[in-house]
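Input protein
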Amino acid sequence: MPPMMEDNTTTETYSKSERIIALVAFTAAAVAGLLLPTKGIITSVCIIYLFLSGCILLQLNMTAPALSVLFFILAYLTRILPLYSLGLMLLAPLLVFIAACGLFNPLRPGIAWLRRGRITPRGLLVGLAVVVVSGVSLVMWYRLFDPDISQFTTYLPKASGVVILAAGLAFSVTNALVEEFIFRGILWEGIQDITGRWESALIIQALVFGVAHWWGVPNGVVGVILATIYGLMMGAVRYIARGLLLPIIVHVFADIVIFALLLDMAGRFS
């Protein structure tokens, strides 16, 4: 994996209509690649649209967002596979995309989002607040709404002690990397490149992140609302940090809480 890059900005200028067309094409590509069903005629429509959206962005000379569509194509093709139900399947297309962009110079703009950023006292304070708020919110959601997340407990290792702790940490770090790279990395950077405004990136990535959690943890309507709010908070952390290292660290703590909730659902604490 290439090293995280320093922050950079684009000097390209586009008309308002071009930005609107590009934003719709790019956001719809993200939704198609990450969220839409992978069965029947929808599969063909999505694949065709994903390629067309990339062509539209290239036609508008928006190279970096167009290259990001390559990831959404890989993500959708991966989701067609039966093993997708195992979870964390988006790790595979993400690694392939990063490796390809790192190895081939013409694709290098596709990983302009891959940068550490900075960790400042202000960022640490905001990050700590997000850790506390998200952790408490997850526990309250679990206790008050009694959600059915039993389907995820089948993936817990049949072990205890150090092994289960290691598994929890591995899950938390991997999931944090995948979700931050996708939502506060690829999606954020593409939207900001197109619109020239970080506020647009903040709102849209949070909405897509929230909807994606209809099937995750937290899930359902309440889960979507909570995840959208979390996406906004993580977007604030990413904006302050100007990169992904701090958001990844903060996200790990929320995933640790989620892993603990799954253990509780499975009766492993009794």
